[in-house]
Amino acid sequence: MTRTPAGRLFRTATGHDLVLTRTFRAPAADVWASLTESERTARWFGPWEGDGTPGRTIRVQMAYEEQQPWCDVHIDACEPQRRLAVSMVDSYGTWLLELSLTEADGTTELRFVQHLTNLEGIAEVGAGWEYYLDMLVAARDGAARPEFDDYHPAMQPYYRALATEVATPHA
Q1: CB 88 within 8 A of CB 60
Q2: What is the widest separation between alpha-carbon atoms in the chain?
Q3: Cα(118)–Cα(15) distance, rounded to whole angstroms?
Q4: Are 36 and 52 in contact (CB under 8 A)?
Q5: How confident is residue 92, by pLDDT bands cut at 50, 70 and 90?
Q6: Can you tell which superkingdom this protein's organism belongs to (predicted)?
Q7: I want to staple 90 with a disulfide (CB 3.0 to 4.6 A). Which of 71, 75, 127, 140 is the partner?
Q8: In 3-state terms, what secondary structure has residue 7?
């Protein structure tokens, strides 16, 4: 299956923001539950354990990665049904992630942002988040899980082009 990448990349004062969105025909409370309840995150990312309150660190299993590793995730901010900001630490470094929800007319938009200090590995990272967010959509719809091979390496050229575009000064 051919997937169309939808991520965008924006220059910020501290680096770049990788932004991806998904839209759900559901109230924000239900989408929020898919992002924050362990039994529901297990369906598309992995289960988690610990005290998930702001300022605390939980452990999250990346259930769809090889070896299914666990990693630490610090809860930087949690505004129920609106915004969740976390710092995830794994063998690749620290990932600064932010998820925000906006509900209107029975539809909720998820805006996923990864705050980047550099663009190294953006081709792999962008394809990976596309995969995980489509896993979220499939889990919520009860649809078959997408195949990672449909994202990587197929989406790498798109994300490399985004990086080149934002790194190139405009005249």
Answers
A1: yes
A2: 50
A3: 6
A4: yes
A5: confident
A6: Bacteria
A7: 71
A8: coil
> Six-digit token pair at 44?
């598309």
Task: Look at the chain and count its residues.
Answer: 171
| Three-class secondary structure of residue 15 per DSSP | coil
CA distance 134 to 115: 20
Residue 81, amino acid: Q
C-alpha to C-alpha distance for 144 and 115, rounded to whole angstroms: 30
96 backbone φψ class: left, alpha, beta (φ>0; ψ -120 to 50): beta
**Average pLDDT rounded to a whole number, residues 138-163:** 96
Going 66 to 71 to 75 to 76, the CA torsion angle's sign is negative
Residue 153: is the preceding peptide bond cis (ω within 30°)?
yes
Backbone angles phi, psi at 55, to 5 degrees: 90, -5
Check residue 171 and give its pLDDT: 55
DSSP letters spanning 36-68: H-HHHHTTTT--EES--STT-EEEEE-TTSTT-
Mean pLDDT over the full length of the chain: 95
Find the radius of gyration of the CA atoms of the chain. 16
Return the higher-pLDDT residue of 107 and 168: 107
Whole-structure pTM over 0.90, yes or no?
yes
